[in-house]
Amino acid sequence: MNTRNRFFILFTLAFICFSNAQKKELRLASKNLAKGDYELAKKSIESAEALFESMDGKQKSQLYFLKSKLYFRGGAAGPEETELSVSSFEKVSNISNPQEKEKYFYDLINHLINQGSKYVDKNDYSTATDYFYNAYRISKKDTIYLYYAASSSVNAKEYDKSLSMYNRLKDLGFTGKEKQFYAKNITTNKDELFDSKLLRDASVKAKTHSSPSQRITKSRYPEIIKNIALIYNQLGDSQKALESMREARLENPDDLNLILTEANVNYEMGNIEKFKTLLEYATKLDPENSELQYNLGVIASDANDFENAEKYYKRAIELNPDYVNAYINLAALILTKEQSIIEEMNNLGTSIADDIRYDDLRAERNKLYLQAIPFLESALNVDPSNYQAAKTLSNIFSAVGDSQNAKKYRDLADSLN
Known about the structure:
With 417 residues, this protein is mostly helical. It contains 20 helices and three strands. A three-stranded antiparallel sheet has the order 2-1-3, with helices on one face. α10 packs antiparallel against α11 and α12 runs antiparallel to α13.
């Protein structure tokens, strides 16, 4: 036997030994994982990893699959281990037992969704986002998981992250429409929603339900566009916020929250006329909304349209008798009229005619004060800790010569300051 043939035989034997060693470690890891012995499984996986470079594609895929199961620990994984489990599973392509992979995939997906939901219940929206997004990572066709992640990240106030996910949903044309399966409960005579068509049909067959039907849920696309607009606004990008809002309103022109948000962005940008137009449109859609009436009062007041401002504030109070700011603003509206009176009083001379005019103006000013008092007292009745109302009442009663009430409200204001 020549040297070349001997070398080839030795190389082949070495390759076979390597291959057998790889298979042995992978088999051992698989058996230990099946028994729940994660420490031994970890050692076998580490031994197999040392031979990683000599593995073929199927063996590498099998290794990643076993690593994913190791991190997953039968569903006992915490957030960090779950992240590692998903990262490993993403690299799994072709393994010798595809049925095992499919079963594990569903176990992993269910874990991610259930854990994400539990963190939502705990108001830990940031962690919930990670779980839902990981579900999307390993099942890209299920874009609803990306929607859950985006929604959770908004609640976590992680706006850059949620904006990225919402924009991806928009690009994907996500609607979130789903079929829902109903049947009428024979006992209650009410329609009930089932988790699946299979369960619904089984109940109908068992004669506990009748009249099977199905419905399509509303599209979530308008909500996505709206949230993109709201996030841009939250991030301070007013121009992009307005562009997104216009697009969102094409999808849902009578969405009250969207109209109000667009109105507020226009107000912040100094587009007062557009702000007013949008609010007036909103009041037509929801005439019983006290906040809308109050905001229209603010606009009218800023435009020195005191007659309409008073009308809007009073309408806000009529709709919501506990609207403290409406009471405060009504009092402030009345008191703004004293400025011109005070200016005239200060410019008067010392003649008898001026003295008479001064007394008339003082009486007119006191009349304004007396008109403002009931609104400030109403504000304090609703909110006894309102320092502004107490301090203003103290000043007013002092100005009209009511020392007893002046002291009463001064003491209250001091206790609140």
